[in-house]
Amino acid sequence: MVLNLDEQKLARDNEYEEERRAEAKSGKARTVSRLNFLRVTIVGGFTILGWRMWDLQINKPPEERKQATKVLTRDITIKAPRGLIYDRNQTPLVSNIATYSVAIIRANLPARSKATKNKDRQAVYDNLARFLGMTYSVACIPSELLANPDKNQLLNSVEKYINISAQDIDKKLYLRKAQKLDTSLLVLKESIPLNDFDQMMTIRELPGLYFLSQAERIVLEAEFRTADFEPVVVWPNVSREDANILDEKRLDLPGIAIVPGYVRQYEKPELLAHILGYSGIFRDSSELESYNKKSNEIAGVSAEAIVRPNPYDIDDQIGRQGIEASMEEFLRGRKGGRTVRVDNAGNIVDTVPGSERKPTVGHTVQLTLDTKLQEIVTNALLAEIESARSQRQASNLTAAGVVMDAETGEVYAMVSVPSYNNNLFRTGRTPDQEKELQNLLDDKRNPLINRAITGVYAPGSTFKLITALAGLNEGFLNTRTSFDCNKYIFVPTLEKGGLIRKSFKCWGTHGTQNVEGAIQQSCDIFFYNTAQQDDSDPILNRRLAYYTTKDSPTPTYFRGMGVNNLIKYMDMFGVGKRTGIELPGEYRGLLQTPETYPEYHPGDAWSVGLTFTTAIGQGDTQMTPLHIANMTTAIANGGTLLKPRIVKKVVDASGKTIVPDERVITGLIDVKPEHIATVKRGMRKVALPGGTADRTLANQMGSLAVAGKTGTAEFGEPIGKDADGNLQFPTLAWFTCFAPYDKPKYVVTTLITTEQSVIEGSTYAVPAAKKILQALFPKETGIEQPPATKKA
Description:
27 helices
């Protein structure tokens, strides 16, 4: 039994083993078959991939290969600090303060979802806005609204929130469509405070309309210009503490990043705001494109070339005013960074070898300004403004002052009053700063205007220096030529009531004057005679003449040079032209001629009265304080018209000079030296006893010999009548001078204005110039401070 049992078991075991071997053999065959299939699949896949790569790189046109390369690489940039600015004594005027910016990386934001209506993503924007105190905007995509059949209903619904009529919104939509901008964001109302958040939320339920924070708006505008993984700065300046708090909230605020950077800090904001200006970020993408195009052109890059990276990104700082704007090409740093390869999801794979670039700080700009002198000029003008306010009850007083080097054209000081705090134009302002900025913008005196280069002023009697030189050089005057001044002259003219003798006055009664005396006394009638030529009156059909009284039977015939000869010298001195100083916004002034006059005064023609007013710096002639200073400089140095320079030189980080320190001659005054000497003698007499500046300068300047010219120019609407019944107008108070007389070194020009009072150059502008001259020549004027006594 046992044997039988064993044999049966053995038989069963053998049967089982044969079955197992058969299955193993069958399984091995199946395994080999699968492996072979896998091998074929892999080889085939690589074959197709290789063929595709070969086809892309060899067969496809270069443009398609370039596009394929673009999507595989991205540029990551590192910001470079802007260059520094110094005065002539190497005093730093601006610094770069390390700061932190809040940025958003779109790839890390919560995903867009129709199911949740993007609520998770929207919550990030709203929570960030609450933390930073951002304002909101109401905006739309015009194409979306125009395509909506319920457009009119939507516009009616939103108009109550933004105080813009549905009709006006509709016009904006179609205007954008006409401009082919209907697919871009159109902001309907901005600067909506957080306090209005709840009541404006309904707008988000209206299709095609958006109620979005500053951050969301910036990100939307940058969406087509930046990759999803690139940080977009939405708040340029936060404190270290706030940066740390936001960094800790990364899990609650996905997509938020803290980016280190720089912010400009102006060391003497009120003192130098008009000179330095300020910087800020780009307003929109079109401005960014414009700056990149201009920078590439300067660098010699063709418009067709692809520049990687472009000089500017949307969140870069650019100069907005002053030196920051005019020297932007030099001050902006050259950003660094690297080129990286990314996968389809935008994740960085590696860095392209050799693509790493170090950022380069912007060039250093040294100005010709002397900061200490700038403060002295400012204080001198402010003191005279206060004097005019208290003595004449003058209001809305403003002022300007310029100090130039008579030989080089360097500007040592340029002041405009009132000034402003240019640090207010930084982003990330506090509520108090926002209020201060709004007050600044609402100030009727327009503090943002640099009156030294953009002020629109009649030059007044300072202009008589040009008239005198023109008359002398044209041969209509000499040192012996004289005219009588009895305060008035009367010129026959035809009015509606018939023939009358129209009066033209002088500010005083000066008797017989030659050219030097006329400059010393600022005699208007002398310069009327100098300008008006011996001509026939086309209306009266007789020789032009005037009478010394209304009833005088004896005419005095004009024998001057004529207005066209005067205009020739005005042009020579640069009237109606920009001086070329390295500051933006310079006003060219206005040189009026008989040919151009009808353009400004339709229906009117040039007259004798216009020749008179032109000769004494009234009428339509307009010059800036810088024009007057430059005119005085040309007289002081003997006839060389210089370009006023406020930039001394520019050097790069290695110390190499990029812009050299050079005097620039813009023209030569074609006047004989003896005639310039005659005018300078007259200017010297202005500051001596009997001159219009004698009360302030005569016998009060120590050994310093000053030569100058006062001016009082009328403008605006009448404010009353004088003792003789003549209309009175508000006036500008001018004084321009140079010193020392024998060897001119400095030119000083001062101006004080008011809208509702009569102020004279001799009373207010001269005392301001005196304080400046005392600072420039302390030893000569006797105000030099004794050295401090050393302690034992």
